[in-house]
Amino acid sequence: MDFFEQLGPAALGSRLRRLSEQMTAQAAEVYSLYHVPVEPRWFPVFYVVATEPERPVGEIAEAIGQTHAAVSQVVKELVKQDLVRVQRGEADLRRSVVSLTEKGQAAWPSLQQQTADVRQATEALLTETRHNLWLALGEMEYALSRQSLASRVKAIRDQRAAGEVHIIDYAPQYQPDFKRLNAEWIERYFRLEAADLKALDHPDEYIIQRGGHILLASYQGQMVGTCALIPMVDATYELAKMAVSPAAQGLGIGWRLGEAAIAKARSLGAQRLYLESNTKLAPALSLYHKLGFRKTVSGPPSPYERCNIQMELLLGS
Amino acid sequence: MDFFEQLGPAALGSRLRRLSEQMTAQAAEVYSLYHVPVEPRWFPVFYVVATEPERPVGEIAEAIGQTHAAVSQVVKELVKQDLVRVQRGEADLRRSVVSLTEKGQAAWPSLQQQTADVRQATEALLTETRHNLWLALGEMEYALSRQSLASRVKAIRDQRAAGEVHIIDYAPQYQPDFKRLNAEWIERYFRLEAADLKALDHPDEYIIQRGGHILLASYQGQMVGTCALIPMVDATYELAKMAVSPAAQGLGIGWRLGEAAIAKARSLGAQRLYLESNTKLAPALSLYHKLGFRKTVSGPPSPYERCNIQMELLLGS
DNA sequence: TACATTTACGTAAGTACTTACAAATATACG
DNA sequence: CGTATATTTGTAAGTACTTACGTAAATGTA
């Protein structure tokens, strides 16, 4: 059972489940000790109905933090046991208003007694420990309500990943990566056009030798992103061939590439960046917008079929 | 959601489950963040197989605190995903030895990375709170391993019940209770005999007026137990008509009645108590033994068919 | 060496919830 | 006032485990 020790808090979820299952099993024993005709899993619903009568299913569900479906099923059982009765709501016929039957009323005092005993036992248990589980649970729920575990983990991963992402300049040996990364997404959404193949197969000839630049992003020893700057007229560069591998998306690599490309453009004396894209590519457009690009209509006609939106970023001086 | 506040620690189990479900849901999100072809519920098994290769199913189950059936099912899934491979044990053909495939090996580093990130996030989360959940869980598991919740609750209930159990002397208005309590168990195990009916219907005539005594136990306003002392020859009294209502069993009422009867017999100058019972009634025999009764063969023939064992308790002087 | 018992495992079914979907009723909107 | 949308509930199916049970292999016993 050293699994939990080895893993430590990374197994917090599993450990919580294990203890909760243990408590559930214990609860079953406690119930058999008292002679109450109520099963442990019915308790929350029964408790709410007993303390606040005439509640509809939905409200009970909200009170105990379960779904209406679960409550509906438990109520069905309780009706079968003749512990509660269900009536249509008076004002709203959709509602199922639940209240105790005579048998339910009769069972309530014993159940209250049992609950009081369990509470006393648990409270004693909690004072036996140095770290109070009840308070810890409350604090943990509060902390998670402020920021979920998933987003906390993501923040840590992103921070770690940032240190492992490197933006490097093109070199001929990267041509296969450059082609693969671009072909991957183009073929997913559109189809490769002749203009694509020329640039992807011969980036040296069609981009570098014409005064352009290509940047690549590496992560954990693999090439996971690219983008290119291609000179146009009037101190304008086109930002093109922006691609990030699906396996590396969500790491902010597009942003890093974009920023690096803008910095490179500035250092080349560019006054303006221009790009073409497609409105189907929502995440890409949102990235461009965050980088400062805005929609324009002044661009030249595109050689690519798939382009239906043009954007620009004025760099000032 | 004031259900948990109202109930307090009595709802500890439910609250644990709720948080564990929340964590499970968060885990699913975390997994989708990393591009690992492993589902959250596979993790424990995968982890053990990755860190300690060539483990049979049973050992994996023990390490992660689940049943072998659960592990068997997860392994089946993992085999379908080509993440692990199963071989027959070399020395023991019953064993299913599990090890990682190449694909599993390939997924392992990412999973390790993810685990490290989750651990870091959770550790940060734990230091954010005043009461450390991880330590509290450990302490709670330890406390429960020393004494289960059920037995703690039972101790509290018994203590409370002891104050509510009263042993009182017979009065004519208790005749229906006296009859009901005895008839209840006799009819459950045997059948009512003529000798029973005489004593149960007319205790005044057949017991009290012959110098005998009847004790009753009341609990929460109800009569839940009886026993009788019937004079025999030679300063011997028969302990008879011992009965405790099934709904009140486990509260030590039999013990209280027995002790009261022994005290009463002493005060009457009895030198010996005698009783007849049946070997089918194991709990009753164990109670008599605890009260000091021992098996004997010296008794007179019983007027009751159901009796096949005789016991006595010498009171000394 | 034969036979009963124990051990290891897989499969089926149960459990206590969930999500997904469907039906009935209530409300909003032109 | 009719129709679209929202709300409330019940039912079915899924989930991630469990318990129960059956089979095969190993072990103990006479």
UniProtKB/TrEMBL annotation, chains A, B:
The keyword Acyltransferase appears for this protein: yes
Secretion signal, residue range per the UniProt entry: none
PROSITE patterns registered for this protein in UniProt: GNAT, HTH_MARR_2
UniProt domain HTH marR-type: residue ranges: 9-158
Residue intervals of the N-acetyltransferase domain: 176-316
Keyword Flavoprotein on entry: no
Pfam families per UniProt: Acetyltransf_1, MarR_2
Keywords linked to the UniProt accession: Acyltransferase, Transferase
Name of the protein: MarR family transcriptional regulator
Organism of derivation: Hymenobacter glacieicola
